[in-house]
Amino acid sequence: MVSQHPNSFKTRRTLNTYGLDAEGYACKISKDNKELYISCWGCDKVLIFDTERRTVSGEIPVGDNPNDLCLTRNGRRLFVANANDNSVSVIDLLFAVGPAAAAHCRPIAADTIAGTG
User: Which of 18, 55, 16 is nearest to 35 (CA)?
Assistant: First the structure.
């Protein structure tokens, strides 16, 4: 993952690079700009990057090959599309970090979302 300071857009320089466990796919910034959610395609997780400390502060297991992310307007839930198992993981971000994180992530089959399941 590459971090860029606002001034780096003028100089067109990369200021920092952070390694990931596998291929990153998409990112969404939290409403308060303090966390960056990264779908990690190759590790079946969403990584939580602390933008102030500039470190990965947590990870949430999701379905197989997570790709696109959608954050609710109020910032409470994160929806993760999982390509290989045709599901969406719904994450309650109030409980997203720590040992209880997996209990607050529910994979939902695509046919359930479409109303056919």
Answer: 55
> With b meaning 16 or more CB within 10 Å and e meaning fewer, what string describes 53-68?
eeebebbbebbebbee
Task: Write down the architecture of domain 2-113 according to CATH.
Answer: 7 Propeller (2.130)
pLDDT the model gives residue 112: 44
Tell if the pTM clears 0.90, that is, is over it.
Answer: no
Q: What are 29-43's pLDDT values in tens digits?
A: 999 999 999 999 989
Q: Could you tell me the two tokens for 98?
A: 């720590």
Amino acid code (one letter) for 35? E
Backbone angles phi, psi at 83, to 5 degrees: -65, -50
